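Bench notes, afternoon.
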Amino acid sequence: MILVAMGIFFGGTIWTIAYSFTNSKLLPKEHFVGFDQYARLWGEPRWMVSIENLAIYGVLSLIFQLVIGFLLAVLLDQKIRFENTFRTILLYPFALSFIVTGLVWQWILNPDFGVQHIVRSIGFESFVFDPIYDASIVIYGVLLAALWQGTGLVMCLMLAGLRGIDEDIWKAARIDGIPAWKTYLMIIVPMMRPVFITTLVIIAAGIVKVYDLIVAQTSGGPGIASEVPAKYVYDKMFLGQNLGQGFAASTMMLLSVLIVLIPWAYLEFGGKKRG
């Protein structure tokens, strides 16, 4: 079973990369054109917009999910009352599909029904908040939905890491008079390095393949303002009937995944081997 799975995965990957150098349209064909598809890809304004959106979405998503997730985990680690209830509430959005999340946040951010309508109904008539209809900030509206869904998982991972810290370390820090914030920053966070690295890889993998959230919330609009690489690949392959261009774009997505995975593998396994 493992051999079959690996064969399908690696065989499909190699096949995709090979045919990204062809002029395939509706069906694959062995008409090699070198790097023409890649040159055409990086000259495509829609692809450049998708890369820019992915960079903005990715950087902010990494930062906010890690920071907010860690802070929530720290709060829950204080052994507060109803901890299980709070943990369930915070993790619940992660149980929803991205399609449901996108539709929910499409309604929340809709100026006619959502936040803008509610604020204006209580007297603030000049209040404006319509990110899904503003091309300059639409990607930040998508980011809000992604943070709402994904932060709970990060919180649970961080909380598991915090619960794995030996209690004697906390006792020693208190005896030495080290402030709590400094204990977290100088002692706890370095000890949780494997948790942070694993969480970073999980978040990064989700960022690169984000598709259904975009489709459900904005459909890539207004115009192409919220376009992302995964949607570009789908549209080129199945709507534009341009397999060669879709293969080239998906190969670039694979390259971005490898840029994340190779440093992670080196940090996780290379360091252990040296140790």
